[in-house]
Specification:
Strand order of the largest sheet: 1-2-3-6-7
InterPro entries: Peptide_deformylase (IPR023635), Peptide_deformylase_sf (IPR036821)
Strand content: 25-35%
Order of helices and strands: HEEEEEEEHEH
Shape: globular
Structural class: alpha+beta
EC number: 3.5.1.88
Distance between the termini: 12 Å
Organism: Roseateles saccharophilus (Pseudomonas saccharophila)
Largest sheet: 5 strands, antiparallel
Pfam families: Pep_deformylase
Catalytic activity: N-terminal N-formyl-L-methionyl-[peptide] + H2O = N-terminal L-methionyl-[peptide] + formate
């Protein structure tokens, strides 16, 4: 947090399936796994492109969250569907050691492309929808603390969630 690269609007990807793009995606999945993350956006690793990855089978940082399918999402567009808004705890690799409650849309449709340029069109709800919205915010220069409304529910993970391993909360 504080790095100006995280506050910019990322640039669209125009070429799919390139060796450079595949290498970037592999690096992002490795980085996300090393940080026990639920997702990662290219701007978080200093790459100014509209690319997010997300997904896991089980996540130690969010032990009660259901699995989210591993996904590469390029040039995403989010459409809010009916279902209202809900609050939930979020953390971030770009804001290590902290968590806060953020209100997000409960049900969304997201579209975009995979690494080869094939269209993606999915409906997501609950934690899956939260992860997608959080990661896509990074593409527009938004960090989750900018969405925190009640700072009584924002703070150090070690204080708010002492039962969690602090080393597992770097994303």
């Amino acid at each position: 947090m504080g790095d100006p690269r995280l506050l910019r609007v990322a640039q669209p990807i125009t070429e799919f399936g390139t060796p450079e793009l595949k290498l970037l995606i592999a690096d992002m999945f490795e980085t996300m796994a090393a940080a026990n993350g639920a997702g990662l956006a290219a701007p978080q690793i200093g790459v100014d492109l509209r690319l997010v990855i997300f997904g896991y089978t089980k996540n130690v940082r969010y032990p009660d969250a259901p699995p989210v399918p591993p996904t590469v999402l390029i040039n995403p567009v989010i459409e809010v569907l009916d279902g209202g808004r809900t609050e939930g705890w979020e953390g971030c690799l770009s804001v290590p050691g902290l968590r806060g409650v953020v209100e997000r849309d409960e049900r969304i449709r997201y579209t975009g492309f995979d690494a080869e340029g094939q269209p993606i069109d999915r409906i997501a709800d609950g934690f899956h929808a939260r992860v997608v919205q959080h990661e896509c915010d990074h593409l527009d220069g938004i960090l989750y603390p900018m969405r925190v409304k009640n700072f009584a529910r924002f703070g150090y993970t070690s204080v708010l969630f002492p039962e969690l391993d602090p080393a597992s909360d770097d994303d």
